Amino acid sequence: MAIVTNTVNYYDGDVVLEGLFAFDDALLGQRPAVLVSHAWGGRDSFVAGKAEKLAELGYVGFALDMYGKGIVGSGPDENAQLMQPFLDDRAMLQRRITAALTAVRSLPWVDGHNIAAIGFCFGGLCVLDLARTMADVKGVVCFHGLLGKPNNLAGYKIKAKVLALQGVDDPMAPVEQAIAFGREMTAAEADWQLHSYGNTMHAFTNPVANDPSFGTVYQADADRRSWQAMQNFLAEVFS
After folding, report:
1. What integer pLDDT is reported at residue 161 of this predicted model?
2. What is the pLDDT of residue 85?
3. Which of 71, 86, 163, 186 has the maximal Cβ count within 10 Å?
């Protein structure tokens, strides 16, 4: 096994974006790809690491870019400023992540008929919105994501299988929002699952998260269990 990583520029209109892709060059031919959508801080080492782990599983991992080449937040205040325009304009969010889907399909190692997407926090919302646009992807996995329904889409029928992995004590996606999410997915005729981890807050997959007052705390068991759930899900959707 030899994991190769590199970056590639792609575009949303005039906005230059930079994705990082990873694949195992010991494997021959095309293979499924998994988009990795970042949290509110931008495309960082966390999602790059996830792309590499996906490559170790035999996929092409593609850490996408929602903000623009080289744009990464420096802390909570700047992160919030970067994320907020996409929460206010969900059509822009949907267009931006669709650009990443187009970009990954152009990579020569990718089987364009077998693509899934995972996302963390804000990235979880992004991959859910990708599914809500009825994009041709096999499945999406939302890790401790924002679950709120967009206000620019109606009457959609979700083609992708959906897996949401949430902490029951997540203040950014409370139980009431999870219930509304389930109703939304059922109305959209989605094949959906929601795993709720007890005694677990937001950002439970991030080892540096340690701010109970903000609601972001790493939880090793939920991290391990959710990654295993994702692996099982991807094996199913790509079968």
Report:
1. 98
2. 98
3. 163
pTM over 0.90: yes
| Joined tokens for residue 87 | 């929460």
Q: CB 41: neighbour CB atoms within 10 A?
A: 22
Is domain 3-237 in CATH 2.60.120.10, yes or no? no
Q: What is the token pair recorded at 72?
A: 């990464």
Task: List helix spans (H) across the chain.
Answer: 45-56, 76-88, 90-105, 122-132, 175-187, 220-237
Token pair for residue 107?
A: 């990579």
**Cβ-based neighbours of 27, under 8 Å, separated by 6 or more:** 58
Distance of CA 116 to the CA centre of its chain: 9
Domains of the chain, by residue range, sit at: 3-237
Asked if 158 and 181 count as a contact pair (C-beta separation under 8 A), the reply is no
Computed over its alpha carbons, how large is the radius of gyration of the chain? 16
Given a cut of 70, the residues of the chain with pLDDT beneath it are 1
Return the pLDDT at 86. 98
Cβ atoms 194, 166 nearer than 8 A:
yes
